[in-house]
Amino acid sequence: MSAIDLFNKGNSLTEVKNYDEAIKMYKKAIEVYPYYAIAYNNCGIALRNNKQYEEAISMYEKAIEINPNYSFAFNNCGIAYCNLNKFEEAIKMYKKAIKISPDYSIALYNCAFALFNQGKIEEALATYKKAIKINPNNPNYYYKCGVILLQIEKYDESILMFKKTIDLNPNYYLAYNDLGNALSEQNKYDEAIKIFQRSLEINPNFPYSYYNYGMALLCKNKIEEAKIILKKALEVTPDGIEDKEEFLKFIGHKFLKKISRIKYLENELEKSQLENKKQIQEKAEGDKSLVIIKKALSEFELRIKGKNKNVF
Fold first, then answer.
1. How confident is the model at residue 45 (pLDDT cuts 50, 70, 90)?
2. How many helices (H) does the chain have, and how many strands (E)?
3. How many domains, in total, are found in the chain?
4. What is the average pLDDT value for the chain, to the nearest integer?
5. Is 64 within a domain?
6. What is the pTM of this model?
7. How many angstroms from the chain centroid is the CA of residue 174?
8. Roughly how many angstroms between the first and final C-alpha of the chain, as a whole number?
9. What is the pLDDT of residue 140?
10. DSSP state letters, 214-265
11. Per-residue confidence at 87, pLDDT binned at 50, 70, 90?
12. Residue 197 to residue 177: CA distance in whole angstroms
């Protein structure tokens, strides 16, 4: 068989996720024609999908050696480095891809992800926005922007991003979930509850939306309804202990954030002049359910850890 025939066979095997056989075909194509850059690249893709990340990187590097302007190979190499949590190396690869192809929105998107994981929040946000400018029709770009804006507490901007995500993809349940979170942070619990319900209509097995929905109900002092929803969150949470612990870390972080906000408002209240007290008290009013929520967290932890079978 010719190198092209072997290459095409490898592509067909990759399409049906038969990566082991695809890798063999690509390697045979390379044996026939050692300067077949795209065969190295596609072999790297199959290796990465097979979780053979180090070998995938070697293949991408060979493709780049043959064609130093191969922006796709640089991008794919970056993805493999991300799979190994080597974000600094990944960023270098993505930036080389972008230098070669400045309008390569996928490379910008991937670079932003790596920057975010490096803690370079502002640079990540700016990079996502560049991707949006190039390709304004990709809902994932808006969603990731919204996530960062939510994290840095720019709630109005994050809400706009999540709404744009939903405009482009009405079934994007993650965007609904985080839109609800942004609204909750603004104490708009009634709106948030409707949004969480929509998220769960799309994906009724997403535990985080149940949890966030339950917390919004607690903040409205709808305790019995909240218990039902939080119980459902536990029911749909994966059974693996690591998944349970990850979920518990998530809710613990959310509670700590809320408690920190309360403490901040209480301190501000103490320091404020008499004429400012009413305004600060109004801000704190949205979190009046703190005692109820803290109690719910304690019960929720016990339930997940299996120490209290009667909770809810």
1. very high
2. 17, 0
3. 1
4. 84
5. yes
6. 0.77
7. 9
8. 66
9. 97
10. HHHHHHTT-HHHHHHHHHHHHHHS-SSHHHHHHHHHHHHHHHHHHHHHHHHH
11. very high
12. 9
What does the alpha-carbon distance between residue 73 and residue 308 come to, in Å, rounded to a whole number? 52
Q: Which domain holds residue 38?
A: 1-68
CATH number at residue 28: 1.25.40.10
Lowest mean pLDDT among 60-69, 108-117, 203-212, 226-235: 226-235
- Establish if 166 belongs to a structural domain: no
Q: How many percent of the chain have pLDDT more than 70?
A: 76
Separation of alpha carbons 32 and 138, rounded Å: 39
Mean pLDDT to the nearest integer, 212-229? 88
What DSSP element (H or E) covers 178? helix 173-185
Structure tokens belonging to residue 59: 């293949």
Q: Could you give the 3-state DSSP secondary structure of residue 291? A: helix
Mean pLDDT of 24-29: 95
Task: Extract the tokens encoding 151.
Answer: 């994290």
| Closest by Cα among 133, 139, 221, 131 to 179 | 139
Does residue 23 belong to any structural domain of this protein? yes
| Residue 87: partners with Cβ closer than 8 Å, 6 or more residues away | 81, 114, 115, 117, 118
Q: Could you tell me if residue 102 is inside a domain?
A: no
**Separation CA 220–CA 212 (nearest Å):** 13
State residue 263's pLDDT score: 52
Checking if the pLDDT of 236 tops 50, the result is yes
Q: Which is nearest to 46 in space by CA: 29, 68, 65?
A: 29
Q: Are 135 and 120 in contact (CB under 8 A)?
A: no
Which residue type, as a one-letter code, is found at position 260?
A: S
Instruction: Please state, in angstroms and rounded to a whole number, the distance separating the CA atoms of residues 217 and 81.
Output: 42
- Amino acid symbol at 311: V
